[in-house]
Design a protein that fits this description.
The protein is an alpha/beta fold. The chain contains 12 helices and 9 strands. It has a 6-stranded parallel β-sheet. The protein has a 3-stranded mixed β-sheet with strand order 7-8-9, with helices on one face. α4 packs parallel to α5. The C terminus is likely disordered.
């Protein structure tokens, strides 16, 4: 059990983590800070945190567990705000969707104490942001990716893994580079495509009429386009090199389909669709396989 969680960022992700820790009996007290005082106050009213901190530094004071639940672009400034109270016995984690930029910030700011930081990416979320949507079940049954570096303290990595497993998560360890490449393909690019599709339709004169005719398939495909704009702006920019690489792979695949259609080539078109269909079917079979 932890004596105190220092929660920096009392929104959906941080608030859900605090509620899950509390429900599991893993923390005695949660001290929270958000850039917006009204968010911190609301988090206390909802029972997400026990004490409001006036600064990130004071949220960390006395904590043996710290969670940075801030936008990726705010990570370096947050490290700078708390570095004077970082101790070797404190476990610090984040929930950022990209890892290399976060780790680079930790190296620059924490320096010799960077080993206390265990970069983490819980694969969870909602389209609705904010502490009012915090949910203790948000992480249950979800994957969490840890991306320790060579200087990360092994005991801290083990402790981080135990925390997430205690919240009902499946934990996987990856390199930061492997993580960012993978999630550019399976998360960041799909969001980019959903944003682009909604934008492309809405900019057409008949766009609203088209949308009025859309059914469940369109709804499912574009669901993530309703995600928080500021959060996804930061994610896409922080992983831009990997994202552009994946975008080019997608454009080549799209061009193949367009060429088959333009050439009125049903065999080529059916082959491309069949390959995609088979890949999707095989992925579903893999995804539901129990993990040991």
């Amino acid at each position: 059990m932890f004596e105190q969680l220092g929660l920096i960022g009392c929104g959906l992700m941080g608030g859900s983590f605090a509620l899950a820790l509390k429900r599991a009996g893993l923390v005695k007290r949660v001290v929270g800070y958000s850039k917006s005082p009204s968010t911190t106050e609301r988090a206390r009213q909802l029972g997400v945190i026990d004490v409001e901190a006036p600064s990130a530094l004071l949220a960390v004071s006395g904590a043996d567990l710290v969670l940075l639940a801030v936008p990726v672009a705010a990570t370096e400034a947050t490290f700078k705000a708390i570095r004077h109270l970082v101790r070797n016995d404190v476990l610090i984690m984040d929930v950022g969707s990209t890892k290399r930029e976060v780790i680079d910030a930790a190296r620059r700011v924490l320096r010799d104490q960077v080993g206390v930081f265990v970069p983490a990416h819980p694969i969870a979320g909602k389209e609705l942001a904010g502490v009012d949507h915090a949910d203790p079940d948000l992480y249950t049954g979800r994957q969490v990716i840890l991306t320790p570096i060579e200087r990360t303290m092994p005991g801290h990595v083990d402790k981080a893994e135990k925390v997430w497993r205690a919240l009902g998560c499946q934990v996987k360890r990856m390199t930061p580079e492997g993580h960012d490449a993978a999630y550019a393909a399976i998360s960041h690019l799909p969001h980019l495509l959903a944003f682009a599709l909604m934008g492309a339709i809405q900019k057409q004169p008949e766009g609203n009429d088209f949308l009025a005719l859309a059914g469940p398939g369109f709804r499912d495909f574009t669901r993530i386009a309703a995600s928080d704009a500021a959060i996804w702006r930061d994610i896409l920019l922080s992983n831009k090199e990997e994202l552009i690489t994946q975008s080019r792979h997608f454009l080549r695949a799209l061009q193949e389909l367009e060429t088959a259609i333009k050439n009125n080539d049903p065999d080529a078109l059916e082959t491309l669709i069949d390959q995609a269909s088979e890949a999707r079917a095989n992925w579903r079979m893999t995804a539901i396989k129990p993990q040991g």
